[in-house]
Amino acid sequence: MKYEKITFRTADGKAYHLEIDRINPNILTAGSPGRVLKVAEYLDDAEVIEGDRKMTVVNGTYKGLPVSAFTTGMGPASTAVVLPEAIEAAEGPIVMLRLGTSGSLQPFVKVGHLVISSGVVRDEMTTRAAVGPEYPAVADPALLPVMVAAAEKHDYRLGEKLWVGIIHAKDDLYFVETPQFSPSKELMTAKLASYRRMGVLASEMEFSVYCIMRDFYEGRRDDRVMVGNLLAVIASAPEVEAVAVSKEDKKRMERDMIEIGLDTLLMVNQLRDGRDIGVDLGQIVRRMMLVPPRSKLI
Question: Which pLDDT score is estimated for 250?
């Protein structure tokens, strides 16, 4: 079924900002163009597209699977511009995984850990142009155990260095991340503290847009759109002494995230085709159930 597309086009029919006319439906994204270029190193026949706006796009194959990656820029506003362009340029069922960085909001979520988002606190204004703040932003539940399985292959053990749960999305970095500097510090500090008390794991800036755009397009396209979020924790929780992340650790985490993202895309497509992925997802779900409550972790 053809549907009315919302994005702007160039005179030659390409997406106006990404400057593409096609993209593969198995997608990794990142805010950083450098991270997207690193994805290209894993792909066969990698094609790099970089238009006037420097929004890097990569197309190629990974173990025979057509894969693309693109940069979203920083923050929800930039993400909300390019995400619809990518969704409208892809044909077939879409799986889109964001590979990002975050600051911890919990003392047990430490620098060097990974967080898989199950849902998002929409503490930003961009997605409210689509739907009110009471509407939930949730990751695709079916992706969560698959992402856990892929992460555990890379020695991120669930409940030790790997966490699944709610994260926080914001549209400002400094006054939200360090509310003590905000002119509205009393309000900002209290709000962030309430999220921590409710168990929000980490804070980032983009994934709420993925969830809302997924729901918007699933009402228009014939094919599914599935979204997931994998975050490297690079800043400590407010009450924990700051830990510096070395360049070597950042490089290792970035490499791990890319490999976990690619492995997840492979396993999702194998599952769709009815093939064995070599992992007992039932055991993964069981371990997710057995992660201790927050009261035992703090």
Answer: 87
